[in-house]
């Protein structure tokens, strides 16, 4: 796994964050996603090992994890794809463990995801984030990193 490192400190507490690209679906990665993803959306079915393997095998997708020491404390997925107008990097499922929030993990993950997008030739990065009080800190982070809310609607249909 290729790693990006970032040290963050809050008050006297220091958290060393290492962001890595996941190259293999392992029980440890699967268990971490099973713990983290419900913190973002508890209503969705968790990916099984087959889905995780498919995700990692997809050349357009990069799964990132953030570690504090040996513990996985965050994750995001970066998808780079081409449209007629842009080469886009889409950041999906940016989630930081409740115990590690406010300590730079989200920032390290998003910056690493943007690096992946740049490395793969993306011209623009986009993400979708829920609304409401639970997402205010995430929105402040995204704004601080340069993301802006677009005047558009996201529409979805289940297939």
Structural class: alpha+beta
What value does the average pLDDT take? 90
Q: Name the assembly state.
A: single chain
Strand portion? 25-35%
Q: Under the CATH scheme, which architecture would be assigned?
A: 3-Layer(aba) Sandwich
**What's the β-strand tally?**
6
CATH topology: Aminopeptidase
Give a short account of the largest sheet: 6 strands, mixed
H/E element order: EEHHEEEHEH
* N- and C-termini, Cα separation: 33 Å
Shape: globular
How many structural domains does the protein architecture include? 1
Classify the helix fraction into a percent range.
25-40%
Taking Cα atoms only, what radius of gyration do you get, to the nearest Å? 15 Å
How many individual helices? 4
Widest sheet: strand order?
1-2-3-4-5-6
Catalogue the unreliable spans: 5-12
CATH superfamily: Gcn5-related N-acetyltransferase (GNAT)
CATH class: Alpha Beta
């Amino acid at each position: 796994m290729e790693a990006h490192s970032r040290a963050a400190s809050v008050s006297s507490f220091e958290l060393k964050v290492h962001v890595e690209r996941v190259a293999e679906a392992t029980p440890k990665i699967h268990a971490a996603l099973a713990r983290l993803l419900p913190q973002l959306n508890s209503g969705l079915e968790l990916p099984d090992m087959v889905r995780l393997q498919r995700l990692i095998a997809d050349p357009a997708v990069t799964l990132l994890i953030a570690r504090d020491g040996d513990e996985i404390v965050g994750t995001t997925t970066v998808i780079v794809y081409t449209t007629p107008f842009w080469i886009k990097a889409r950041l999906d499922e940016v989630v930081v463990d409740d115990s590690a929030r406010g300590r730079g993990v989200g920032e390290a993950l998003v910056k690493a995801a943007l690096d992946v997008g740049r490395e793969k030739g993306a011209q623009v990065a986009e993400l979708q984030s829920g609304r409401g009080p639970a997402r205010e800190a995430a929105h402040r982070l995204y704004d601080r990193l340069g993301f802006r809310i677009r005047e558009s609607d996201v529409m979805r249909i289940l297939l």
